[in-house]
From TrEMBL:
This is YD repeat-containing protein. Residues 17-41 are annotated as: Disordered. It comes from the Bacteria. It comes from Sphingomonas baiyangensis.
Amino acid sequence: MPDYELYRDSAGVVRERQRAATGGDGTASLVERDTDGNPVPTHKAHAYTYDSSGNLHTDTVTDGADRWVRTLEWGNGVQTGDSGWVKQ
């Protein structure tokens, strides 16, 4: 069963990511996955858009060949939805 953890990204949004199996040295690498279960290269540069209230609306990452977009929804200043990483 996968192990998940919460973390705060560079835009301050709380996200969930899957912890990969530990290696022989006991360390774990963290891998975010898209809605199809494939790894997302979150170490690449991100592009952000914001709504009229200044809330993060989309987070886009590309590896040069593929692009993933995560869309956030907000209500009264509280995050109410997260699409997860969707490959475009």
